[in-house]
Amino acid sequence: MIFNMSNTATAEEINHVIERIKECGYQAHVIQGAERTVIGAIGSNGRRSEIEALRAAPGVEEVIEIAHPFKLVSRQLRQQRTVVDVHGVKIGGGDLVVMAGPCSVESGEQLMQTALAVKAAGANMLRGGAYKPRTSPYDFQGLGVEALRLLRDAREATGLAVVTEVMSETDVEIVAEYADMLQVGARNMQNFSLLRKLAGVPRPILLKRGPSATIKEWLLAAEYLLAGGNANVVLCERGIKTFETATRNTLDLAAVALVKELSHLPVVADPSHGTGLRSLVGPMSKAAVAAGADGLILEVHPCPERALSDGAQSLDLPGFAALMKELGREPSRDVKAA
Ligand code: PEP
Ligand code: MN
């Protein structure tokens, strides 16, 4: 339930409603707007009939039922869009954010070369997998902590904020120590114990949509993070499984547009995993922007034919620079990246 307080409600009236919500067995989430205060009563164990009576409390203008099973991520609760700040990069603030880098961190040279090139072309953040979720146990699994150190070096050299995947609860602390933003991979979207742990970590989260997850399930996964106390969540559409085999996944751009209607959280698109094909990354990047994406996450490799993972969908360095130009990006004038 959402309590919209009147714009003349006093602090005393607002506090009274918050206290009563808690006494009725619900959590009170307070959103302080420029003109009025909105209070969400969230929880499944509260006493419904008692809270209903609060409609009559002084200062309450209207009470709205949240129509969806997700509450804290819902735009009904918070109309103002969330802007997630990742070490100074504002995602959802109106400017397109581009995260770029290799699928996997393979070596210091590969990462540094890529980081300098994507920075020079105008990227805002560096991506790179240290812990890789691979379909086969015989495929390259990532360099782990060594990759985290290389990401930190590249961050120092370029100033780019780093996003990398955390696959397991046991790695959360170490990844949070090195990275600016923690990615929950598609295969882990409904790893609820991982989500609960990440809810308590002081780092923004990039939550990828599961390959077979509905939009409702995806938003409920985000709800775990917000309900546990981490409001800095960015959603990432990375393609879903359909009957189509010509592309690796089907990039669901309607989901980008719909999620922006349903939720106040920023949404980015991953046309690399969403298509699996280098030639489609440019067109689908532009399509994602047209659909309202707040950012893009793109795989870039200095020599895609030698990549240890996802070479077929990786842009090379000139290909990335060309796409950035098409997206209207100015090359960076930062001397560090020259
Ligand atoms: C990745 O970003 O490299 C990755 C493994 O993505 P996803 O979880 O979407 O498959
Ligand atoms: Mn990949």
* Ligands, ions, cofactors: phosphoenolpyruvate, manganese (II) ion
Mean pLDDT: 96
From the alpha-carbon coordinates, what is the Rg to the nearest angstrom?
Answer: 21 Å
Q: Which class best fits the helix and strand makeup? A: alpha/beta
Write the layout of secondary structure elements.
Elements: E1 2-5, H1 11-23, E2 27-32, E3 37-42, H2 48-52, E4 60-64, E5 84-86, E6 89-91, E7 97-101, H3 108-121, E8 125-127, H4 145-158, E9 161-165, H5 172-178, E10 181-184, H6 192-198, E11 205-208, H7 215-227, E12 233-237, H8 253-262, E13 267-269, H9 271-275, H10 278-290, E14 295-299, H11 317-326
Parallel strand pairs: 7-8, 7-14, 8-9, 9-10, 10-11, 11-12, 12-13, 13-14
Antiparallel strand pairs: 1-3, 1-4, 2-3, 5-6
Helix pairs in contact: 3-4, 3-11, 6-7
Bound molecules: phosphoenolpyruvate and manganese (II) ion.
The site of phosphoenolpyruvate (PEP) has 9 residues, from loops.
Kindly list the characteristics that best describe this protein:
338 residues; 11 helices; eight-stranded parallel β-barrel; single chain; four-stranded antiparallel beta sheet; binds phosphoenolpyruvate; alpha/beta; binds manganese (II) ion
Provide structural commentary.
It is a single chain. By secondary structure, the protein is an alpha/beta fold. It contains 11 helices and 14 strands. The protein has an 8-stranded parallel barrel with strand order 7-8-9-10-11-12-13-14, surrounded by 6 helices. A 4-stranded antiparallel beta sheet has the order 2-3-1-4, with helices on one face. α3 (108-121) runs parallel beside α4 and α3 (108-121) packs parallel to α11 (317-326). The model has no long low-confidence stretch (mean pLDDT 96). Bound molecules: phosphoenolpyruvate and manganese (II) ion (MN). Phosphoenolpyruvate binds at residues 103, 129, 133, 185-187, 208, 238, 273. Manganese (II) ion binds next to loops.
